Amino acid sequence: MTVRAIALSLAGLAVAMGVTACGGSSDSMSAAHTTTVKAPGAKVRFLTPGEATTVGPTVVAKVKLTHFKLAPNKVGKPAEEGQGHLHFSLDRGKFDFPKYSGANGKTAVKLGVQGKYSPSTVPSITYSNLPSGTHELEVYLANNDHTNTGVATFVSFIVKGNGPSPAAAPPSSGSGY
Fold first, then answer.
1. Is 156's pLDDT higher than 80?
2. Within its chain, how far is the Cα of 102 from the centroid?
3. Burial (Cβ within 10 Å: 0-12, 13-18, ≥19) of residue 109
4. The pTM is what?
């Protein structure tokens, strides 16, 4: 089993145990909420970027949803089967901040989930200023009440043309020479 498959399996286990996916504490959830609402038959897949494609430092990711309705006016309301919003997570949240995911990153800050994922009520997200290197983007279907439906997918892609990844950058002497 790959690390990615194990991570997705663990995410599914967390859903089965009723772990919440969006920001806030369990205090913000209804005390009567004891079961997770799933999305039977729901699927999500990436339209762009394609697996292993090379892109520039700005990436527009688009997904196609099947049997799941985005419900922007119901975010924060009780879960209803087959509807909700999306959570995008780039490199396990490393780039889920306003600097990279723009308005979605600002929403993540408001929810207290920056550095974990960027929420979206439309089937796309734009990440900018990404460093060169291989990146992995995951998307999860979330219920209105911010619980995870257990439906997710990912895509890996390569960014070229914006300098090395911060982890790969050589140390600076600080002298400028």
1. yes
2. 13
3. middle
4. 0.75
Angle at 138 (CA atoms; ends 83, 17), nearest 5 degrees: 60
**Upstream peptide bond of 49 is cis (omega within 30 degrees of 0):** yes
Residue indicated by tokens 């892109």: 55
The residue length of the chain stands at 177
* End-to-end Cα, the chain, rounded Å: 47
The structural domains of the chain, ordered by start, are 3-20+38-165 (2.60.40.10)
pLDDT tens per residue across span 38-62: 999 999 999 999 999 999 999 999 9
Geometric angle at alpha carbon 145, from 141 and 147, rounded to 5°: 50
| Helix locations, 27-146, DSSP H | 98-111
> Which whole-number Å values give the CA distances from 20 to 52, 58, 81, 146, 174, in the listed order?
31, 30, 16, 6, 44
